[in-house]
Structure formats: structure tokens, C-alpha cells
Model the fold of this input.
Amino acid sequence: KIQNIQPDIIHLHNIHDHYLNYPLLFDFLANNNIPVVWTLHDCWAFTGGCMYYDLYQCEKWKNKCEHCPEHRALFNDYTEKQYELKKEWLSKIKTLVYVPVSNWIANSLLQSHQKYRPIITIHNGIDTNLFKPSSSKKNDGKFRILGVAAVWSKRKGLEDFIKLRSLLPPEFEITIIGLNNSQIKSLPSGIKGMSRTTDIQELVKYYSEADVFVNPTYSDNFPTTNIEALSCGTPIITYRTGGSPEAIDDKTGIVIDQGDVNALYSAILNMKKQPLSTEDCRKRAESFFDKDKCFNKYLDLYKSLL
Done:
């Protein structure tokens, strides 16, 4: 199909998770002088198979993956073999340019076996005309805390929201979107749980009404939920995880150490006492994360490669 299309550029995104024969693809790319742009949404390109190494504080990928701490007992550990094969196959592709979506991934690349490649960071962008403040904050005495994820796995920090609920007074209202039915049923009193929504306007409403968006993630690249919240005028509190802090500055959010729920609690109290500006949040989203500005950087890259 690629031969029939005869593209000027091949742009890769996520090619892993068992749906693509990547040895076949890498061999094709190595033997055809077509510029290749690879947007990195995670760490898979330079590890022995994991998408995020930071959850286990593992740095074996800098030299050689083996005895993987993420390894599950159901499967054999092929990380060493995968690491060596990827390193070998990728070295044969002469036209490859990496585009990490966070500075965190870019810095990781510079410590990996792919450090000799061109590396150009382009952050994710969103439709700021779609994600925009839709309503004013409610004046009912409640302080609204929002959490959103596509899937609430362990690395997203659901357990920390539950710990947080036990610390906060009743007037602090927590809403979490993206939970499955069993997770919703297991929530303690005082947390409103919702399943994943496909209604963008409903999501925009929740972002806009929230006083703060909390992202207690333990492993992430550059969460799109952060910039969606910012674009709706809502400040962020996030853990110092991956590229998550890159979405905000001192005027638009607070960054705290990963897993420090007491610091998270204190940050929320401070946010209530000294609210951050909705206008500053919106301005930052428009300045740095508008999709058209981000996409134009790709167009500039394409032009430079042709």
C-alpha cells in the first residue's frame, strides 16, 4: 500500500501493541529513501517494550533492557531481545526524525540508543475553539475538584483521589470522569464517579465548572486532559511526572512531588484561598497548545525535509 501511495513523507505515531509487523516496516523504511517522522507518544521506541519506565523507576533502557520489573509472570521476558532488535533495525533507517510530544521524552531520547537522531519537540495541541470556558463558576459554597482519564489504571492515581477524599472537608466536591462500573461502585461517599463520555460539550461543561483540575498521574508523557482543562480556564495541580508539568506555569497551576497526598491536599487548600486566574489559564492554552499552531510546526518540519 505504501508503494502504491508513493508518499513524500511517512509519519508514524503509535505502531506497537501487537497490531503491526514492525520488523517488516523497519526493513521497508531502511531500504526506501523516504523521510520518516515519528511522533513519540510514549517511550516504546527506545525501551525493551515498556511504554513508560518511570512507574518502576527503571533506567535499564539507557544501556540494555533485561529482567524487566514490569514483566508479568504469564509471559516470558523478551525485553532484552526486543531491545537489541529495535536498536539494530532502527539504526538502518537513515531518514528518521523523532518528534516527542514533551521535553521529558526528548531528554529521555538523548540518553537512549537513539540520541544521535534529529529530535524536535512539538507539544500536543487541541481545538481551543471547542475547549473553551462554557459557564461561570457556581457560587454555592462548593469547591469543585475534577479528575479525567480515558482509563483509570493504577498509574493514573485513582487511589490518591480516594486518600484525598478522607482528608478534605465536605465542601470540597470531587468528580472523576472515565471510570468503569466496578470502580464507580467502589468509590467512597463524597466522590462522584462517571463513565467515559463521548459528549465533548458535556466534558467542556465539567472542565469549566471545576475550580481545579487534579492530575495525580504516576506515569505519563504529556496528558491532553491538562491542556483541555487549561483551555476551559481551569488551573491544574499535577504530580511531577513525565511531561505533565510542562502544560503549566506559576500562573496556571501547581506541581508537587509524585505520591505526596498531603502536599496535594495542601495545594488544593491554597488554591481555594488564592484562586488562579481563569484568563491566565485560557491565555496559556491559546498561546502554546492551539492545534493549528502545533500543526503548523509539523508543516514547517515537512517542508524542511522535502
Remarks:
- The beta strands are 10-12, 36-40, 96-100, 143-148, 172-177, 191-194, 212-215, 236-239, 253-256.
- The first strand starts at residue 10 and ends at 12.
- Residues 145 and 252 are 15 Å apart (CA to CA).
- The longest helix spans residues 291-305.
